Amino acid sequence: MSEFTVSRRQVLASAVAAGAVVATGSPAAAHDTAEPFPLGVASGDPTAHSVILWTRLARDLYAPGGLSRRTVEVGWEVATDERFRRVVRRGTTLARPELAHSVHVDAGGLEPGREYFYRFKALGEVSPVGRTRTAPEPWADPRSLRFAIANCQDFQNGYWPAYDALSNEDLDLVVHLGDYIYEYDPSSRFPDRRHVAPETPGLDQLRTLSDYRNRHAQYKTDPALRAAHAAFPWVVTWDDHETENNYAALVDELDSGAAHQTAAQFAKQRAAAYQAYYEHMPIRANLRPGSPDLRIFRRFDFGRLLRLNMLDTRQYRTDQPGTADFGPVEAGLGNTSGTLTGRDQERWLTSGLIGSPARWNVVAQQVMMSRTLLPNPALVPPTMANLDQWDGYAPQRERLLGVLADHRVANPVVLAGDIHSTWFSELHRDFDRLDVPPVAVEFVSTSISSDFPAAFDAPVKAANPLLNPHVKYFDGLKRGYLRCTVDRHGWRTDVRTVDSIETRRSPVRTQASYAVAAGTSRIVAA
């Protein structure tokens, strides 16, 4: 297994298999692949001396066994050059059928702050080559860090030219904030983007481990997504659609068309969703198959420049207040026992913020933290709030912002996704007292392809100066990602958008750029 040789036949076989998937995107096209790496390779969760290397073996993506019922030995290599003339680490691992023949190699003994290349070998074939990078030493003082923020990639809603653009960026890292897959039944205006059917059509919902595995596998047949994974290490967290829209802990969707499940029934569904997520992500986590619990909140230090706190605001949250996703602001203000993180995660976050030695302290999570008042079409009351966001859990938001202010946490930055639109905001302990300096800034990334109703864009832009003056930038029309460049003196965020998701290829543009000077928590046009 120590010899990795790639023949012309193997390269051509891989190209033919990828081309078949690209041509139709249908289960039939991806049904039988010529090589065992049709889902590509990925890396993630980098530390100063290690990184997770991922792949999943498959011959038949949508067969119950995926490959076979036997365990397969997989070789892996890490090198400092992409031709693998200078291999620094190698080994073997096992791809087990009970984990869909996925592998997670925690490749250690690496040098800090360095670029590496990696690949796998199994069943006589060699995988595509991936590129990754370790983090700087915790006490190091790196000159800068450059990363992208992505989220919300509804396969059925369009193509992903944003990932083509992202894979060509000069980045250290990609941060994915959730909604990696969507759970809905097949329905798309693009014939080659229809979801593979679940075991029980009509629920508009995935339920079984096979359902979730097939959906993750289908998403990874997209060549742009595979390229983005192969180009950089990713740090990922989930939101709701990886399991079920707007679920909270063991409470399924509030307005689900299907009958509500008991907590025990939903725990079984959540266990399937969490296992499939783990099987398809380059994540460092301790999975217990069959368990509805999987801790994925974790922390990464990039020298003394930036601390990245990755949260999970779905698994531990209390149910949304009220009886609908949108409701009166007072419902969130009065939710004194409500939590998005659970008590243990909140304590973990608070401790990591107060004790941080970093110049910039990032809270990366799923839903918008900024108070966001929206005009009520019914007029009474005149405004409403999205209670699935932090507006539904206002007392906890007040506690967190209080920690940032009272302990003078250095340069706090909140990252979010979920809402399929771009929002840049200054965060205040009291959003009605804008004369008091903000305590943090927030950057909310638009979606890769998920829809934001175009009809809402103009009304929100018109309402923000009056209802949300702390919002410094908003756009709901464009899909894409954020590109962030951070150094000791400042933070710059570029809004990178594509012209269209109607085609696989579309130009990418920098639609806007905003900056934050260290020590200010003020967002200004760059």
TrEMBL record:
<feature type="domain" description="Phospholipase D N-terminal">
    <location>
        <begin position="39"/>
        <end position="134"/>
    </location>
</feature>
<dbReference type="InterPro" id="IPR006311">
    <property type="entry name" value="TAT_signal"/>
</dbReference>
<feature type="domain" description="PhoD-like phosphatase metallophosphatase">
    <location>
        <begin position="147"/>
        <end position="494"/>
    </location>
</feature>
<feature type="region of interest" description="Disordered">
    <location>
        <begin position="319"/>
        <end position="338"/>
    </location>
</feature>
<protein>
    <submittedName>
        <fullName>Alkaline phosphatase D</fullName>
    </submittedName>
</protein>
<dbReference type="Pfam" id="PF09423">
    <property type="entry name" value="PhoD"/>
</dbReference>
<dbReference type="InterPro" id="IPR029052">
    <property type="entry name" value="Metallo-depent_PP-like"/>
</dbReference>
<dbReference type="Pfam" id="PF16655">
    <property type="entry name" value="PhoD_N"/>
</dbReference>
<dbReference type="InterPro" id="IPR018946">
    <property type="entry name" value="PhoD-like_MPP"/>
</dbReference>
<dbReference type="InterPro" id="IPR038607">
    <property type="entry name" value="PhoD-like_sf"/>
</dbReference>
<dbReference type="InterPro" id="IPR032093">
    <property type="entry name" value="PhoD_N"/>
</dbReference>
<dbReference type="InterPro" id="IPR052900">
    <property type="entry name" value="Phospholipid_Metab_Enz"/>
</dbReference>
